[in-house]
Amino acid sequence: MYKYLNPVLFAVAVCVLLWRVTSGMEGEGVGSTVDAVFLTVCATLCVICLSIGLSRLLTQRGGHRELLWGVAYLMICATVMVSARTVSPEYSEEEYQSYRGAFDAWRNGADPYAVRDEGESVFTLAASLGKREVVESILTKTSAPADQLQRAAQMAASRNFSECLQVLLEHGLNADVLFEGSTPLCAAAQNGQLRAVQTLLLAGANPNLADEDGCTPLIHAVMAQHVGLVKLLLQYGADPAARDETGRDAASYSARAAIDDLLQRQPVR
């Protein structure tokens, strides 16, 4: 029974690690609690295996197999620590440090909606980095000012943090409000963020509401040359004939035959 324990535990650890890295690559922030628990478990297994291996090695009773398992768990720990910073969220070290400073101040009693020197609050910074648990915790305790809610939505949408967007929607976000010249749907489409667009459309966002330049989400999706986004927006009723302030429609921005074909078809309602 014992000889199968490490292979099974290691297989589970690898599966969790793959999920962790895959979630990060797709743009979803994995909660720090998940990382902490997973890292603690792997580190504990590493210490146990190394301790048993060294003990047996010193008493000349083998131990090589346990040492190998210990090294394997150590490699998983190292991968988690690296991926937590380099794979999942698309942010710079400066952004992360700003967030950490704001987060620590909030945990020490500061107003989560207070705008700091860098021009953001811990609430908007958390949304921009995909920290769903933090965003939800803040909103559960205090209602967000309308401008902060919209700002957070723009930042989450542009980086494809659909779980954060869902939390914002559940706490009163109006997806059809023009804020700082754009809407969350336009911000998501402009950056080619499929899941964020889908989340907003499912919540009832208007697929034909243009930004300050007259660009609809469909025009932004075509400008990004994102076939999947174009198809999705058409399915939700986006108007391919809509024109921006320069008089151009979505088709005029297309550089792909697949997009041309979609725009020429009758949209699926």
Describe this structure in words.
The protein has helices spanning about 1-25, 30-60, 65-85, 95-105, 120-130, 130-140, 145-160, 160-170, 185-190, 195-200, 215-225, 225-235, 255-265. With about 270 residues, the chain is mainly alpha-helical. It folds into two domains: about 1-85; about 100-265, Serine Threonine Protein Phosphatase 5, Tetratricopeptide repeat (Alpha Horseshoe). The longest helix is centred in the N-terminal third of the chain and has 27 residues, at about 30-60. The model is unreliable at about 25-30 (pLDDT under 50).
Question: In terms of topology, how is this protein built?
Answer:
Layout: H1 2-25, H2 32-58, H3 64-86, H4 93-107, H5 122-128, H6 132-141, H7 146-158, H8 162-170, H9 184-190, H10 194-202, H11 217-223, H12 227-235, H13 257-264
Helix pairs in contact: 1-3, 2-3, 5-6, 5-7, 6-8, 7-8, 7-9, 8-10, 9-10, 9-11, 10-12, 11-12, 12-13
